[in-house]
Amino acid sequence: MESAVEYWTARAWLEWQVELGADEAMLDAPLDRYALDPEPARPAPGPRADAVAQPRKAPPPPPEPAPAIDAPTEAARLAAPAKTVDDLAEALAAFDLCELKKGARNFVFADGNPAARVMIIGEAPGRDEDLEGRPFVGRAGQLLDRMFAAIDMARDHPSSQQGLYITNVMPWRPPSNRTPDAAEIAMMLPFLTRHVEIVAPDVIVLMGNTPCQALLGRTGITRMRGTWAEAFGKPVLPMFHPAYLLRTPAAKREAWADLLALQARLREMS
Questions:
Q1: H or E stretch including 109?
Q2: Domains and CATH numbers, the chain
Q3: Deepest of 122, 146, 179, 228, by most Cβ within 10 A of its Cβ?
Q4: Phi then psi dihedrals of residue 72, to 5 deg
């Protein structure tokens, strides 16, 4: 019978194996670790107490857009309180809803004698008018002065009988001297209406299609010229614009006939 290993001998062998790295006891039979069930998944850590999701606040509603301003309504509001020509000029100069204002050099309001019996309404400033800030000062304006001088009337005449008062539908020059559109005319109409009320002329002369559109609601100056109409309770005479007469000298005959008709009407009203 084989003798048992002494305690100290067995311990010395064990310590020697530990020094060699064999420090883990093995089973009597080999273990197939691939056949074992995989390690169960660890549960996901729960949220920390200080990280519990708070209910999300609804975002504030977007601000409501500002209501659109109706240009003719605003124009009427500004024009109504005006008592004098100067009041009206100040109100019109402060009107910012017309895009033409942004591209114009100067505000062109009126010229002449506000007490005159005859009020001339043109279309819009041109280049010369935009530079100087007065209506009808270019070549067309010089022709207009000569035309009315032929019947003894002038813008600088101090007499109401022989004076002229001149304005335009538009106080700002349109780009490239284009014709004002319907929306631009509509927003200027309250100012023009109040202008006529303040000046209170006996007769209104409409130079060209744009003032005919504004006051009479129609165009076609070649058909309308020389035919009396009525607007704002005043007799109205459509005439060719002097710029047209510069391009079409043959039409000066009709313009002269219109001037004589104006002169005769003023005499009838005296």
A1: none
A2: 71-269 (3.40.470.10)
A3: 122
A4: -60, -35
Closest CA to 170 of 211, 116, 119, 231: 211
Q: What is the DSSP string of 155-222?
A: TT-SSTTTBEEEEES-SSPPGGGPPP-HHHHHHHHHHHHHHHHHH--SEEEEESHHHHHHHHS---HH
pLDDT attached to residue 63:
76
42-62: average pLDDT? 67
Amino acid identity, position 225:
R
Q: Which of 3-7, 141-145, 178-182 has the lowest mean pLDDT?
A: 3-7
Of 14-18, 44-48, 61-65, the range with the lowest mean pLDDT is 44-48
Q: How many CB atoms lie within 10 A of CB 72?
A: 16
Residues 6+ apart with CB under 8 A from 76: 190
